[in-house]
Amino acid sequence: MSMFFSKSKYCSFLQCPKMLWLKTYRPQLYEVAPEVQARMDEGNAVGDLAMGLFGEFTEVTALKADGRLDVSRMIENTKNALIAGVSVICEASFSYHGLYCAVDILRKTENGYEFYEVKNSSVVKPIHLQDASYQRYVLEKCGVKLVGAYIVTVNPDYQRPETGKPDLQAMFRFQEIGKELTEKSEIELDLKIAERMIKSHVEPKMSVGEHCHSPYECGFQKYCFGKE
Ligand code: SF4
Fold first, then answer.
1. Residue range 206-222: average pLDDT?
2. Average pLDDT across the chain, whole number
3. Is the pLDDT of residue 227 over 70?
4. 143 contact partners, CB below 8 Å, separation of at least 6
5. What is the CA radius of gyration of the chain?
6. H-state helical runs in the chain
7. Greatest Cα pair distance in the chain
8. For 165-204, how does the pLDDT look when each residue is reduced to its tens digit (9 = 90+)?
9. Rounded Cα distance, 181 and 170, in Å
10. Of 28, 80, 135, 192, which is most buried, counting CB atoms within 10 Å of its CB?
């Protein structure tokens, strides 16, 4: 695959192939509802907190002058952190033939690395497994020796103190999901279909339905629903 592909593109494709096509050819039609944006912001804040789950960490995030992520620098920073033997790398970034991904937490253990994806949710959902499957695929292709894959969820019973730092061990829970991830061959098939579709200039036909709302609210609803 020679194009730039990401975890969010992979998940868009699985939710609705047309969503991925529209993101590629008609991105200006994408609209994020305020409540969706608020949820994303909340998710980012939860992700930032979870970085400290295993104590000291190195975050490799790098931004360009225009504020967008500098993916190349993040990949370079990750390589350097791996060489230096850093034990907890946050936003660890990898690319394999144009397939890009960043994992929330990459943790070194005696036998290899574990990765942790943080979700602003109290339960592990199927979409979390799909997105972690893509991550595991890219990491393994990049030669990272993985010995564990986890989804970090928020403990709904935990009451955050009004002031001071939350107790991260009590606030978060994590679940090993390695056995529930999609096989490599299935991911490769999905990626092939997605690549063929992205290369086509013809908008795919797809009726609106339940998939427009789940697992995520699609930002092209105005466009698609308006057309029907
Ligand atoms: S609104 Fe529905 S049909 Fe249109 S791109 Fe989104 S998920 Fe697909």
1. 95
2. 94
3. no
4. none
5. 18
6. 7-15, 17-25, 34-50, 71-84, 126-141, 168-171, 184-199, 221-227
7. 56
8. 899 999 999 999 999 999 999 999 999 999 999 999 999 9
9. 26
10. 135
Segment (H or E) for 18: helix 17-25
Residue 90 near residue 57 (C-beta atoms within 8 A): yes
Q: Which amino acid is at 14?
A: L
Sheet holding 88-96, edge to edge: 58-59, 88-96, 99-108, 113-118, 146-154, 172-176
Atom of ligand 1 nearest to the CA of 17: 8
Provide the token pair at 97. Answer: 């033939």
CATH topology of domain 7-227: Lambda Exonuclease; Chain A (3.90.320)
Q: How far is the CA of 25 from the centre of ligand 1 (A)?
A: 14
Residue 161, token pair as written in the block: 């103190």
Which amino acids bring their CB within 6 angstroms of ligand 1? 16, 18-19, 22, 206, 208, 211-212, 218, 220-221, 224
The residue nearest atom 4 of ligand 1, judged by CA position, is: 224
CA of 70 to the centre of ligand 1 (A): 29
Nearest to 93 by CA among 24, 51, 47, 144: 144
- Span between the terminal Cα atoms of the chain, in Å: 34
Which amino acid belongs to residue 5? F
Nearest CA to ligand 1 atom 5: 19
| Domain-wise residue ranges, the chain | 7-227
pLDDT tens readout for residues 123-176: 999 999 999 999 999 999 999 999 999 999 999 999 988 888 899 999 999 999
Q: Which tokens sit at 207?
A: 């009726």
Amino acid (one-letter) located at 168? L
C-beta separation of 42 from 120 below 8 A: yes
pLDDT exceeds 80 at position 212? yes
